[in-house]
From TrEMBL:
This is Glutamate decarboxylase. GO terms for molecular function: calmodulin binding; glutamate decarboxylase activity; pyridoxal phosphate binding. It comes from Malus baccata (Siberian crab apple). Gene3D superfamilies: 3.90.1150.160, 4.10.280.50, Type I PLP-dependent aspartate aminotransferase-like (Major domain). Pfam families: Pyridoxal_deC. It catalyses: L-glutamate + H(+) = 4-aminobutanoate + CO2. Its EC number is 4.1.1.15.
Length: 530
């Protein structure tokens, strides 16, 4: 491929360039002239290879694999702007079917043939902005009607909310009242939440699938005690459920769990189509319990084909592809597969998604989460912070953080190609750090096994880098083992007390003074004295 003469000098690192290889890509200013399409493609393609492999990105809930036919629908609809409902009534119709299906999945009290109230969004974040605005407007209308001030709305959530709630609060000027979490209880305590509710509370937002550890909040208990408070005060405070991750888990795995519109105070629910809805990034859903829960004055009406098309979104234009892909997934997979199916593992260890429905896919995710959880437990090094019932994630923290922390484990896993984030819990458990593995629909047994062997390898590497210090016994330190758990499956605490002499060991061999990190035998860096 020859270099186009149209490339500007400033964007060409070497004048003798004959291909994209010797050309540096434009970074600040648009190039003055065009270039051949192959060249533009190769330049970008080359850079993108530095990105991680999305399938090994265990940090994200967002779908990383879809079927060929779904991809075809996506590609074929890239030229359709969703907002042109007049021109694309069929696309609009398919979105409305998705809204109906999801509202029914969440047990909206709809009569036969009654259309559900809701809309597709770019993701749960937009869905939450819309839900929050609806609550705020409803509350304002109510306060105006009774002649009370309506300038200090607040919303009650757990401190474990996803960042989009903080965005909503800041962008739309609603005070966020957060129920603090505490060690060993990492979600919103419904009792404390209801205590924080006052006359200016526009809603209490519960999370089905806490971002931090996947745990479901107790929406039923929240509903019950909030009903009681509403009865006493006459306030009528509603509930929103942020089911971004759990909305496509609970209906399939825990159909008897009451978290949705079966609870009378739940007025709206969001879910991310691009998480366990199994669609690529760019789709979320918001559904309201009934038409009455979405204030009329927030809805814009568009008429097409004689029918009234209400719209309530932040964005005007957006692609149609994700909407169509969601409808494809819903009808293609269905609630469950026909007949009893054992998970099918193919040669490469991935189950055959073709044979499965949403339920089996979620069951497989849960099963693989348990495989990972057990493997992580088996190291003897971690405490599990996720629950067996919840979104299929495995969250865990080190039992012994004296030699290295979760961030070091995360870094180590990155060198094994896996992205497993480390982060801190929210207030008041900020001292707790954890690692989180999200099990998505494209996870597999093979990958679970690779992940576990990588975790073990990383622990071994870190153990060697940060030798186990001795156990303190009467000011004297005994040697400990080669990173292997002692009798009770736990590592001995690392060394020890200041002003005492530390010996450390690695591979069972004692170091002399020179083996410790400093000349006087004191441990440094990560081996704090207790
Ligand atoms: C992912 C997530 C969000 C944000 O959803 P997007 O679809 O990424 O905008 C909000 N809340 C919770 C609980 C989440 O897990």
């Amino acid at each position: 491929m020859g270099l186009s003469k149209t490339l500007s000098e400033s964007d060409v690192s070497l004048h003798s360039t004959t291909s994209y290889i010797l050309t540096s890509p434009a970074k600040y200013k648009m190039p003055e002239n065009s270039m051949p399409e192959d060249m533009a493609f190769q330049m970008i393609d080359d850079e993108l290879r530095l990105d991680a492999d999305p399938r090994l990105n265990l940090a994200s809930f967002v779908t990383t694999s879809m079927e060929e036919k779904a991809k075809r629908l996506i590609m074929e609809s890239l030229d359709k702007n969703y907002v042109d409902m007049d021109e694309y009534p069929a696309t609009t119709d398919l979105q409305n079917r998705c809204v109906n299906m999801i509202a029914n999945l969440f047990n909206a009290p709809l009569k036969d043939g009654e259309a559900a109230t809701g809309t597709g969004t770019v993701g749960s974040s937009e869905a939450i902005m819309l839900a929050g605005l609806a609550f705020k407007r409803k509350w304002q209308n109510k306060m105006k009607a009774i002649g009370k001030p309506y300038d200090k709305p607040n919303i009650v959530t757990g401190a474990n909310v996803q960042v989009c709630w903080e965005k909503f609060a800041r962008y739309f000027e609603v005070e966020l009242k957060e129920v603090k979490v505490r060690e060993d209880y990492y979600v919103m305590d419904p009792v404390k939440a209801v205590e924080m509710v006052d006359e200016n509370t526009i809603c209490v937002a519960a999370i089905l699938g806490s971002t931090y550890n996947g745990e479901f909040e107790d929406v039923k208990l929240l509903n019950d005690i909030l009903m009681e408070k509403n009865k006493q005060t006459g306030w009528d405070t509603p509930i929103h459920v942020d089911a971004a991750s759990g909305g496509f888990i609970a209906p399939f795995l825990y159909p008897d769990l009451e978290w949705d519109f079966r609870l009378p105070l739940v007025k709206s629910i969001n879910a991310s189509g691009h998480k366990y809805g199994l669609v690529y990034a760019g789709i979320g859903w918001i559904v309201w319990r009934s038409k009455q829960d979405l204030p009329e004055d927030l809805i814009f009406h568009i008429n097409y084909l004689g029918a009234d098309q209400p719209t309530f979104t932040l964005n005007f234009s957006k692609g149609s592809s994700q909407v169509l892909a969601q409808y494809y997934q819903l009808i293609r997979l269905g609630f469950e597969a026909l007949g009893d199916l054992e998970p099918i593992y193919t040669f490469e260890g991935t189950y055959d998604i073709n044979a499965l429905g949403y339920r089996e896919i979620m069951e497989n995710c849960h099963y693989l989460a348990m495989v990972v959880k057990e493997g992580v437990e088996k190291t003897g090094r971690f405490k599990i912070l996720s629950k067996d019932i919840g979104v299929p994630v495995v969250a865990f923290s080190l039992k012994d953080r004296s030699r290295y922390d979760e961030f070091k484990v995360s870094e180590g896993l990155r060198r094994h190609q896996f992205i497993v984030p480390a982060y801190h819990m929210p207030a008041d458990a900020k001292h707790v750090a954890l690692l989180r593995v999200v099990i998505r629909g494209d996870f597999s047994r093979t990958r679970a096994e690779y992940l576990l062997s990588s975790i073990n390898a990383v622990l071994k590497e870190l153990d060697e880098l940060h030798p186990v210090a001795a156990i303190q016994e009467n000011g004297h330190h005994k040697l400990s083992l080669n990173g292997v758990a002692n009798g009770n499956g736990e590592l001995p605490p690392a060394a020890a007390v200041e002003n005492c002499h530390h010996k450390v060991s690695a591979n069972g061999a004692a170091y002399g003074n020179g083996g410790t990190d400093t000349e006087n035998g004191q441990m440094t860096d990560g081996a704090k004295c207790y």
